[in-house]
Write a structure and sequence with these properties.
The structure holds 2 protein chains of 2 kinds. In chain A, 75% of the residues lie in helices and 1% in strands. Chain A contains 21 helices and 2 strands. Classes of the chains: A mainly alpha, B mainly alpha.
Chain lengths: 482, 628
C-alpha cells in the first residue's frame, strides 16, 4: 500500500511497543524494569533513523491525510527525544508501580506513536485519531499507580475532562464537514473566505480548538492541569507537559497555518486574548503555590500562554519561535522532572523534602534543577531565555499588525517577571532552606546520569548557540510554505 | 628604538603580574624582589638609552572608537616625557632597592613589590600617554595602586583609613578631571595632545567662554593627585604606608602626576580669556603657605616631611600658574625633578631613622643626637635639607629661583612676597627637624640603640645625594623648556656657569630667596638648638595650637561629609523603605499574591466544578468570537 514507507517511523515505534510487550513474557520479574532501557534504546535508534531517512521535499499519503515534511519531522524528533528522556525517568520510577512495568513502557511508546501521527496530520480525521490515541494512552498512564488514591483521582479527572473535550472536538469536526464538505486542511484553505467566515464553520472550528486547547492547557481549558500534574506518576507528568502539549501545538499550528491561513485576522485576536489570560492565570496562581508538582502545572500553563502568543503572530517568525520555544521548554521540564523523580521522599505526599536541602544530597541534581528553573524563567544563558526572546521578537516584529500589541507585550513581560519569582523561589528552597531531614546522598544510575548530562548540555547549548536549532526550526517552517 | 617605550611601560606590569601569580608566598620573596627590582632597573637603563638616543615622536594603536571619540593607546616621547621617565624609573628604582632592606622580614614582602611594580607601571603610563583618556586610565591606576600601598599594613586601622581617604579624596578630584576631559573633547573634538594643541594653535578661541571652566576642571585632577588645597588632606595621612612608599608617592610619582599633567596640557590653560592660570597660581601659593605653617608645629618626622611635600607641590603649582605669555611652566617641572631627588632622599633618611629605631618611634621630640650614631644618614639628610631650603649651590635653590623669577619679572610682588614667606617657613621647619632629631641631646633611651643602616639601604641615600647636590647645574630647566617650544641652547654652558647663573641673571631674586631661607634657619637655630621641648606653643599660643591641629580641616571635612552623607543616606533609606520596599515591592507583591490566592479558589479539586468551569469557558469563548 502506498504511503507505508512514509509512516515508517510510526510503524517502528508501534513495533517497539509490541516488542516490549512480548519481551515482557520472557523476562524475569526483577529484570522487568530494565525493559525501559530497551525501550529507550529503540527510541534512540528510531531518532537516529529519522536523520538517515532521506525525503525529497513534502510528501503526502493516504489521500492527503498524512503529510511528511520538515515541519512534521521536527516535531517527530521532538517527541522522540521527549519519550527517550521519559523512558529513562520511568526506569527510575518503575519500583513505585505495583505491577505492569512493561505495559507502562509500551503504552508510553503507543502514546509516542500517536504524537508522531499528530505531527503529520493534515486532515481532521487523522487529527482526531491521533489525539484520541494519545489521550487514551494517557488515561491509563495517569492512573498507573493504582494503589495511590491521588493517582486514581487524577486519572478520573483527566478522563472526564478529556472525554468532554473529545466530545467537543468530534462535534466540531462534524460541523466542519457539514458546512465545508471536506476534512482536509489544504482543501479547507481553498474554499474562500465566504465559506470560512460562515458562523457554523466558525462554531465547528472553535469546538476543535476546545479539544486542542485542552491538550495545550490554555485558559479556560487548563482547569485539570494542577490536579493531574500532582497526582500522576512523575514520568507521566513529564510526558504530559512536553509530549501531549507538543501534540496539541503541532495540530493547532498546522491547522492554523495551512487550513485557516485565509482568515488569520479572525483567529489572531482570539489567540492573543487567550494567551494573555493563560499567562496571567498561570503566573498568578503559581505565586502562592508551594507544592512543586502543582507549581510545574501552573508553569505549564504559563508556557502554553507564551506558545499561543507566538502562534498568534501568524508569521513565519512566530511559528519558528513556537518551535524553538517548545524545544527549550522540553529540556526545562525534563530537567525538573528527572530531579523530582530521583529526589524521592518515601511516605510523604507534599514532597517538600524533594527540594529542601537538595544541594546536600546531590549537587548534580541541585545544579540541574537550578539550571532548569533558570531556563524556564528565561534567564540567559539558558535555553529558555532565547525561547522567550524569540517570542518577543515575533510579537514586536509584527508591529501594529499584531493584535493588541501593547497589551500582549505588557502581559508577557508581567508573566516573565512573575515566573522569575516563583522559579527562583524553587532555587532558594534548594539551596537556602533549613532542613532537618537526613541528608542521605542520592544515587543516580549511569543511564539517568547521562540523561541529566544531556538535559544540562541541551539547555546550555540552546541558550548559548541557538543558531543550529533555530535554523532547523526556520527550515521546518519554510517547508510549510511560509 | 620604537619598541623601547613599550618595553619600559610593560616591564613593571609583567613584574607585578608575575609576582601576583607566582611569588606572593613568603618563601618566594627572592623571586619577587628580583622580578620587581629587575624590571625597575631595566626600565631605568632603557630610559637612559632612550634619552641618549634622542628619540622623539608618538606611536599608538586605536584602542577605543565610539562614534566621534577615538582613543589611542600608545606612547609619546618629547622633552617633557623622557626626562620625567628618567625621574620615575630612576628615583623609583632606588626606592625599590632601598625597600629590599626596609621591608626585609615583612610577611607581605611579595605583595609589597607587586604593588610597587604596579605603581611604577601606572606612573609610566601617565608619563607616556598620548591622550587625555589614556592618561585618565593610568591616573586611576595610580589611584588604585596607591590605595594598595598606603593600606599595605591593612591590619592597622590607621592605614586602612588612610588608604580609603587617599582613594576617595582623589576620586573627588578625578571626577572633576573627567568632566574636564569630556568638556575639552566636546569643544575640541579630540583627546590627543598633539591634535588638541594643533586645534588651539589654529583657532585660539576654540574653547570660547568655557576656557576657564575647562582649565579649572582639568586642574581638579591635579588638585586631587598633587594634593592642593582643599583636597590636600589625604597626603599627610598617606604616610601610614611603609616609608619607601611615602618616598615614592611624595617624590617621583603620584603627586608629581598632577604637576606633570598640568604641564602636559598647558596649552589648554594658556588660552586667551582664561583666568585658570590665575586661580592655579593662588591655589598653589595658598597650599604652600598653609602646609608650611602646619609643618612648623608637627612632631612626627614623616608628617613634617609630608607637609613639606604639600608645601613644595604648592610651589610647583605656583610655577605652572605663573607661566603664560612669555613664560613657560618649565620651572615647575624643574622643581618637580630636583624635588623628586631630595624629597625621596629625605623620606628614605627618615625611613632609615625609623628603621634604626626598630619601627617604634617617629616623634622627633623623643629623638636627638642621631648625627653621631648615623653619620651617613645625617649627612645625606642634611644635604637634602639644604637643597629643600634653597641654599646654593644645592639643586633646590635653582629650581625655586626659577619659579620665583616670573613673579619678579611680571611684577607680581604679592605672590613673590608670599612665596618668599613660604621659603622662610621651609627653612624653619626643616632646620627644626634637623636640630631636634639629629643634633641636640638624646631625648629618650631608644636613641642609644640607633645604628647606621647598611648596604641596600645606605647606597640609595648616597646615590640620591648626587642629584640633590649637583642637579642645579645640569641645565634641566633648559631641557624642559624645549617641550614648550624653546630652541636648543646655542652654546653649552658649563656646570659652574649654571651654578652662578642666577647671580648674574637675576641677583635680586636669588638674594631675596637666600635671605628668606637663612632667616628661617636662623629662627630655627634660636628656637630649637638644644631644645628639649617645643617653645613655640608657649610663645605664640593659639596660632601654634591651630597649626598643630592642622587648622581642623580633617574634622571639618569629616563633619561636612558625615552630615551630607547621613542626610542623603537617610533620604535614600526612607525612599527605599517606604516608596520602593513599601509601596512598589510590598504593594505590588501583595496585589499579585492576593490575585493568585483568589484565582486558586477556582481550583477546588471538585470535578463537577471543573466541568462547569470548562463548559462556561467554552460558552464565553463562543460568545467572544461569534458576536464580533
Amino acid at each position: 500500500m502506498k504511503g507505508l514507507e512514509l509512516i515508517g517511523l510510526e510503524i517502528a515505534v508501534i513495533a517497539a511497543g509490541i516488542a516490549i510487550l512480548l519481551l515482557d513474557l520472557w523476562t524475569a520479574k526483577e529484570d522487568k524494569r530494565r525493559l525501559g532501557y530497551a525501550a529507550a534504546l529503540l527510541v534512540g535508534v528510531i531518532f537516529l533513523a529519522s536523520f538517515a531517512m532521506l525525503f525529497e521535499g513534502r510528501q503526502e499519503a493516504f489521500h492527503g491525510m498524512y503529510v511528511l515534511d520538515e515541519f512534521a519531522l521536527f516535531f517527530k524528533r521532538f517527541f522522540l527525544i521527549a519519550a527517550l528522556l521519559v523512558l529513562l525517568i520511568s526506569v527510575e520510577f518503575a519500583d513505585r508501580f505495583e505491577s505492569g512495568v512493561a505495559e507502562y513502557y509500551a503504552i508510553t511508546l503507543f502514546a509516542l506513536a500517536g504524537m508522531m501521527f499528530a505531527a503529520s496530520a493534515n486532515d481532521f480525521t487523522l487529527l482526531f485519531v491521533s489525539i484520541e490515541l494519545v489521550a487514551v494512552c494517557f488515561y491509563v498512564l495517569v492512573s498507573f499507580q493504582r494503589q495511590r488514591d491521588r493517582s486514581l483521582e487524577a486519572g478520573v479527572k483527566y478522563l472526564i475532562t478529556g472525554a468532554l473535550s473529545g466530545g467537543f472536538l468530534v462535534y466540531g469536526i462534524a460541523l466542519i464537514y457539514g458546512t465545508a464538505g471536506t476534512l482536509n486542511f489544504r482543501e479547507l484553505a481553498s474554499l474562500g473566505p465566504e465559506v470560512l467566515e460562515s458562523r457554523l464553520l466558525l462554531l465547528g472550528l472553535l469546538f476543535v480548538f476546545v479539544g486542542l486547547g485542552f491538550k495545550i492547557a490554555v485558559v479556560p481549558f487548563q482547569i485539570w492541569v494542577p490536579d493531574v500534574y500532582q497526582g500522576a506518576p512523575v514520568p507521566t507528568t513529564a510526558f504530559l507537559a512536553a509530549g501531549s502539549k507538543g501534540a496539541g501545538v503541532v495540530l493547532l499550528a498546522r491547522l492554523l497555518y495551512t487550513g485557516l491561513r485565509p482568515i488569520a485576522d479572525r483567529w489572531g485576536p482570539v489567540l492573543v486574548m487567550l494567551a494573555m489570560l493563560t499567562i496571567l492565570y498561570g503566573g498568578l496562581c503559581a505565586i502562592p503555590q508551594r507544592n512543586f508538582r502543582r507549581l510545574m502545572g501552573y508553569s505549564s500553563i504559563v508556557n502554553a500562554g507564551f506558545i499561543l502568543l507566538a502562534l498568534a503572530a501568524g508569521t513565519a517568525d512566530g511559528l519558528a519561535a513556537t518551535l524553538f520555544y517548545l524545544a527549550a521548554y522540553l529540556y526545562g521540564v525534563m530537567g525538573a522532572f528527572v530531579v523530582l523523580c530521583l529526589a524521592r521522599c518515601p511516605g510523604q505526599e507534599d514532597e517538600t523534602c524533594v527540594l529542601a536541602g537538595l544541594h546536600h544530597r546531590s549537587p548534580l541534581l541541585a545544579a540541574t534543577l537550578t539550571l532548569a528553573m533558570v531556563s524556564l524563567a528565561g534567564i540567559p544563558p539558558a535555553a529558555g531565555f532565547f525561547g522567550k526572546f524569540q517570542v518577543f521578537k515575533a510579537v514586536i516584529g509584527q508591529g501594529a499588525a499584531f493584535p493588541y500589541p501593547a497589551w500582549a507585550l505588557g502581559v508577557a513581560v508581567f508573566g516573565a517577571v512573575v515566573s522569575l519569582y516563583f522559579y527562583l523561589n524553587v532555587v532558594r528552597t534548594v539551596f537556602w532552606s533549613s532542613t532537618s531531614e537526613s541528608v542521605a546522598p542520592i544515587r543516580i544510575s549511569h543511564a539517568t546520569r547521562w540523561a541529566v548530562y544531556l538535559v544540562i548540555f541541551a539547555i546550555l547549548w540552546l541558550g548559548i548557540l541557538p543558531g543550529a536549532i533555530l535554523n532547523l526550526a526556520e527550515y521546518a517552517v519554510h517547508s510549510m510554505g511560509l | 628604538m620604537q619598541v623601547l617605550p613599550w618595553l619600559i611601560l610593560l616591564l613593571p606590569l609583567f613584574a607585578a603580574v608575575g609576582i601576583a601569580l607566582g611569588a606572593l608566598p613568603a618563601h618566594r620573596r627572592g623571586v619577587a624582589a628580583r622580578l620587581s627590582v629587575g624590571a625597575a632597573g631595566l626600565a631605568f637603563l632603557l630610559s637612559v638609552l632612550l634619552w641618549s638616543s634622542g628619540t622623539q615622536g608618538e606611536q599608538g594603536f586605536l584602542w577605543l572608537a565610539a562614534g566621534a571619540l577615538k582613543v589611542e593607546f600608545g606612547w609619546r616621547l618629547d622633552a617633557l616625557s623622557v626626562p620625567m621617565l628618567l625621574v620615575v624609573t630612576g628615583v623609583g628604582g632606588l626606592i625599590q632597592v632601598y625597600s629590599l632592606g626596609y621591608m626585609r622580614g615583612d610577611k607581605g614582602f611579595g605583595r609589597y613589590f607587586a604593588g610597587l611594580s604596579l605603581f611604577t607601571f601606572a606612573m609610566e603610563g601617565i608619563v607616556l600617554s598620548t591622550n587625555l583618556v589614556q592618561m585618565f586610565v593610568f591616573w586611576e591606576l595610580v589611584g588604585v595602586s596607591s590605595y594598595l600601598l598606603i593600606g599595605f599594613w591593612r591590619e592597622r586601622p590607621a592605614a586602612a583609613d588612610a588608604c580609603k581617604k587617599a582613594f576617595l579624596t582623589n576620586r573627588v578630584g578625578d571626577f572633576g578631571f573627567f568632566l574636564g576631559i569630556l568638556l575639552v573633547w566636546s569643544l575640541l573634538g579630540t583627546v590627543n595632545f598633539t591634535e588638541m594643541s594643533a586645534v588651539l594653535q589654529r583657532q585660539p578661541e576654540a574653547l570660547g567662554g568655557l576656557a576657564t571652566l575647562a582649565g579649572l576642571l582639568v586642574f581638579c585632577g591635579a588638585v586631587g593627585k598633587s594634593a592642593q588645597f582643599p583636597l590636600h588632606v589625604w597626603l599627610p595621612d598617606a604616610m601610614e604606608g611603609p616609608t619607601p612608599v611615602s618616598a615614592l608617592i611624595h617624590a617621583a610619582t603620584m603627586v608629581a602626576a598632577g604637576v606633570y599633567m598640568l604641564c602636559r596640557v598647558f596649552f589648554l590653560l594658556d588660552v586667551p580669556g582664561s583666568v585658570a592660570l590665575e586661580v592655579i597660581a593662588w591655589t598653589g601659593i595658598f597650599t604652600a603657605l598653609l602646609a608650611g605653617v602646619i609643618a612648623v608645629q608637627q612632631d612626627d618626622i614623616k608628617r613634617i616631611l609630608a607637609y613639606s611635600t604639600l608645601s613644595q607641590l604648592g610651589f610647583m603649582v605656583l610655577g605652572v600658574g605663573l607661566a603664560g605669555g612669555s613664560h613657560d611652566p618649565a620651572p615647575a617641572m624643574f622643581h618637580l625633578t630636583t624635588h623628586a631627588a631630595f624629597k625621596a632622599l629625605l623620606f628614605l633618611g627618615a625611613g632609615a631613622v625609623i628603621h634604626a629605631l626598630h619601627h617604634q618611634e617617629q616623634n622627633i621630640w623623643k629623638m636627638g643626637g642621631l648625627a653621631s650614631k648615623m653619620p651617613v644618614t645625617f649627612v645625606t639628610f642634611g644635604l637634602a635639607t639644604l637643597a629643600l631650603c634653597g641654599f646654593p649651590p644645592f639643586s633646590g635653590a635653582y629650581s625655586k629661583d626659577a619659579i620665583l623669577l616670573p613673579a619678579y619679572e611680571q611684577g607680581r610682588y604679592g605672590l613673590l612676597v608670599l612665596a618668599l614667606t613660604g621659603g622662610f617657613l621651609t627653612a624653619l621647619y626643616m632646620f627644626r627637624l634637623v636640630f631636634v632629631a639629629f643634633l641636640g641631646p638624646a631625648k629618650s633611651q631608644a636613641m642609644d640603640q640607633a645604628a647606621e643602616v647598611r648596604g641596600v639601604m645606605k647606597w640609595p641615600l648616597i646615590l640620591l645625594a648626587v642629584p640633590t647636590v649637583l642637579a642645579g647645574g645640569w641645565g634641566i630647566e633648559g631641557v624642559y623648556r624645549r617641550a614648550f617650544g624653546a630652541a636648543e641652547p646655542v652654546e653649552a654652558v658649563s656646570w659652574f656657569g649654571q651654578i652662578i647663573a642666577p647671580l648674574t641673571h637675576a641677583p635680586m631674586v636669588a638674594l631675596l630667596a637666600f635671605v628668606a631661607a637663612a632667616g628661617g634657619a636662623f629662627v630655627a637655630y634660636r628656637l630649637y638648638w638644644d631644645a628639649l621641648t617645643d617653645p613655640l606653643p608657649d610663645k605664640l599660643g593659639t596660632p601654634a595650637e591651630w597649626a598643630r591641629r592642622r587648622f581642623g580641616f580633617d574634622e571639618l571635612y569629616a563633619r561636612i561629609i558625615a552630615g551630607t552623607q547621613d542626610a542623603l543616606a537617610g533620604l535614600a533609606a526612607a525612599v527605599d523603605r517606604w516608596v520602593l520596599a513599601g509601596a512598589v515591592v510590598r504593594g505590588g507583591h501583595g496585589l499579585v499574591e492576593l490575585a493568585g490566592r483568589v484565582l486558586r479558589l477556582v481550583q477546588t479539586g471538585n470535578l463537577q466544578g471543573y466541568v462547569t468551569f470548562f463548559v462556561a469557558g467554552t460558552v464565553l469563548l463562543l460568545l467572544f468570537v461569534l458576536t464580533r
